[in-house]
Amino acid sequence: MLNRCLDNDRFRVAWAIAAPLWLQRGSQARSARDGSDGGGGTVTDVSICLLGPLKVTRAGALVEVPGRRPRTLLALLAMEAGNPVSADLLADRIWGEELPDNPRGSLHTYIGRLRRVLGKEVVRRAAGGYILDLPRSSVDALAFVDLLDATGRHGGAEGAGVYERLEEAIDLWRGAPFDEPAGEPLAEIMRPWLVDRYLAALEDRASLDVAAGRATKAVADVRRVVADHPLRESLWAVLLEALASAGRTAEALEAYEEVRSRLADELGADPGTELRSIFTRLLVGDVATPEIAPSGGEPVVPEQRTSEEDSTAAADTVPHQLPADVPSFSGRDVELRLLDAVTIAHESGWPSVVVVHGVGAAGKTALAVHWAHRTLEHFPDGQLFIDLRGYGPGEPMDPEQALSGLLIGLGVDGEAVPDDVDAASALLRTTLAQRRVLLVLDNARDAQQVRPLLPGGESLALVTSRSQMRGLAAREGAKRIGLDMLTPGESVAFLHQRLGDRATDQATVRTLAEMCGHLPLALAVAAERCGRHPDVSLAALVAELDGESSRLSALETADDPLTDLRAVFSWSYDALDAESRAMFRRIAVHPGSDLSVPCAAALAGVGTGPARRLLDRLTEANLLREHRPGRFVLHDLVRDYALEMGSAEESEAAVRRLVSWYTHSLVAAAEIDGPSHRLMTLDPLVPDVVALGFATSQQARSWGEREWPDLGLAVRLAVRRGLLGAAYQLVNKMFNLSMRHSPAEVVALQEIGLEAAIEAGQEVDAAYIRNQLGISRARAGDLPRAISEFRAAAEVFRETGAAAGLEMSLSNCGQALSMTGSLDEAVAVLEEAYAVADVAGMADRARGSLIGLAEVYVRMERYQDAVRLIEDEIGQDPVDVESSSPRLTLADALIGLERYTDAEHLLRHELARHLEERSRWSEAKVLVRRAVIERETDRVDQARATLHEVVAILDEVGELDRTELTRERVDDLLASVGDGRPAGRGERASATRGLDGGVALRP
């Protein structure tokens, strides 16, 4: 399935290259197949407009397609109107990495919605997927492309009716394509290509207007759109030509200065050849001569070009400069297919530049050379190869030197090569004008180094670089293919090919691949090292490598910097400015798999604005990858290198900032709904760190859940660095989040925090952690050890006079005792907790103790006493009380009193709260009580359905708290409704036993 073999970045590249080609050829192919207008369907009364906000009509009437994902589904099917689309592809494009549990079922539901709106005859099953059975003319985006293709204006050719077809296509444009729905592959990939076609159509129409003497109209049309696309040089070129043809030369010169300034400010680049040529002609008053090439702002005179004899000699030269192919090349099947798609698209006139970019050691050169050898027949006039030395020992190659090498390789006499870069660049394009040559521009530093070397006409430039070459993509329309690490399967295949018969132990081979971080260079070095000792088992060699103090040391070579990972990474590092280097070193300290911009800002001790810019520089240099918007990943081996570059002091300061940021952000998340009790004193926020703030409770919860895995790693990192106070304070503030996670996982973290507090000599703080540890043990079902933790904490609080801590630990202890059946002892302990709070004047905590006592009364079947206590403490309308604990306890008591209507009313409001908060565990606690009421009121079928819903939640989230709900309890209730027998009073009394709201278990 597509989502199994392509990640999102690779799919976007594939779509960016292949989809425009499909659109260009789709109409032709379909027409040839069925003799129609290109569509395979017979329904003609449905119209779908994607060029702008989604608009769907049937029989002339607007129809509404409900739901964002169904609208995205419709857009995906519409872009393949008349052709089947596989269910796997649709699911991948609709949900991406967030696939639901049953994507095919959800997809079928959405298809049903579309059928109800459009009709079953329009949306049909076909070939393992679905088809929108409409002609292409019924979808405005496809009709738009077909009209433009019919003009025949690929590269400026003209034909009959061109102007009319351009007008008709442009009239279809209502706004940005796929403005709604915003399906990722459509909005991010197809939209730019369609916008490019639209702008090219406007340019073509304006050029025809100028040629027909309608220059004023052309000026108005182009000015209308150039403001929205200020970096598109071809638009400015048409505007300059139109202004000049209209006799408005002064305005044309002003427009040139405007675009020159914009390009300099936003891209750090000068205008391209076409704009400079027009500018030169404007200066000399020759607006009718399009062939003059600029050179430093001056026209190029004929004497500067190659002589006729030199041109003839160059035309007879067919260069073959490719290095030898890698004999054991393996993997990269996806990237090779993308490059093949580039070749096919290039033969249709698009694109002329492709960039393969990635981190050092990713195998960019090997891929480029291997593919170039595979595609020799597509470039019959030769292949040029040049190492631009952008990253490596020595200085990058100057464009002048590179141009000289390329021109001589093409047969131009060295003495005929101009010294001026612009003139030499023009000569390169002239020499390649009628030839199909592949130029492999390897190891490029930046766009400025590459731009003068780009060919024109039918030749293709394949650039490899550690830079993403954003400038080439923006100005020259370069198509980029990001090269990430190999997949695990590709890494294993790579090692099998290099190691041969020695690679028999699959587990050992996989371990070696993991050690190498799936980077091709690291894999090659490891295979070479293993090959030095043919008599030693692979397992022994891998164990030896694993025993090295550093993976980089294990994978270094002594005699060749080109195969030494430290050297390879250093070339990228050395190319950074000082600020970016510091950011690189400090974010490497982060222990998680990825990090956010605010997190990086905290690590580096800078603001989020500067942090975003520095992360962007690292991403552009391919030392960092933005795998999701705002989330960045460092490759493991690159991280190792970055850590080596940082000092111990710098790393420790970064850890201190990170943990402080996490801790105080957790405090802000906990207090979003109001101030919380801060029993443990926290260290102040570290200087140069700004904690997060949250606008809503949902925002705070979402952040906490996203960061949860990294919070635990940060605790362990702080302990390793000796930052004991920071470690246990972070553990303490993680408590609210911990209630949504496995008790066993939380116990392990709290034990680390407890040990840190004890080692730091902080007895009271250790008692706070011990109280939280007791809660987690109770959640895990280990009540005896939980009671022991509560009693130990209470002893410390009693000795130190910490009344709040003492009340809290006594309340928790009493609740735990009640769960073991020691009800009388539980009442005594809870009454003591109430007395401590009452004497200390802590009204809120006294109320909490009484509600805990009410829960014990429920267990003792003293339901009326429980109701009285709760209503005395929280009033007659518990629905408005913020905490859910008293409401659940009151519901338990009302069920015991057989006041089912009152209990159900209370639970209905409680369920609505938890559904809004998306708390599945809390939802399950409410539902199981509702099931008890449904059973007791003879709604057995409803009770059974509700309990199955509870089972589904438990399967999804696990048993987060055995003091509140267990799978065994749900199974017992299911058994009681399975045979339909009515429960007796004893069963009603036990119906909610073990379903405690957790009222007394407080941190």
Produce the secondary structure layout.
Layout: H1 2-5, H2 8-34, E1 46-49, E2 55-58, E3 61-63, H3 68-78, E4 85-86, H4 87-95, H5 103-118, E5 123-126, E6 129-132, H6 140-150, H7 162-171, H8 184-211, H9 215-226, H10 233-245, H11 249-267, H12 273-284, E7 294-295, E8 298-299, H13 308-315, H14 333-347, E9 353-358, H15 364-374, E10 383-387, H16 399-409, H17 421-432, E11 438-444, H18 447-450, E12 460-465, H19 470-475, E13 479-483, H20 488-499, H21 506-515, H22 520-531, H23 538-546, H24 551-554, H25 565-574, H26 578-587, E14 595-596, H27 597-604, H28 608-620, E15 625-628, E16 631-633, H29 636-645, H30 648-670, H31 697-720, H32 724-733, H33 735-738, H34 743-759, H35 763-779, H36 783-800, H37 803-819, H38 823-839, H39 843-859, H40 863-874, H41 885-896, H42 900-917, H43 920-936, H44 940-957, H45 967-978, H46 985-989
Parallel strand pairs: 9-12, 9-13, 10-11, 11-12
Antiparallel strand pairs: 1-2, 2-3, 4-6, 5-6, 7-8, 14-16, 15-16
Helix pairs in contact: 2-8, 2-14, 3-5, 6-7, 7-8, 8-9, 8-10, 9-10, 10-11, 10-12, 11-12, 16-17, 20-21, 20-22, 21-23, 26-28, 27-28, 27-30, 30-31, 30-32, 31-32, 31-34, 32-34, 32-35, 34-35, 35-36, 35-37, 36-37, 37-38, 37-39, 38-39, 39-40, 39-41, 40-41, 41-42, 41-43, 42-43, 43-44, 44-45
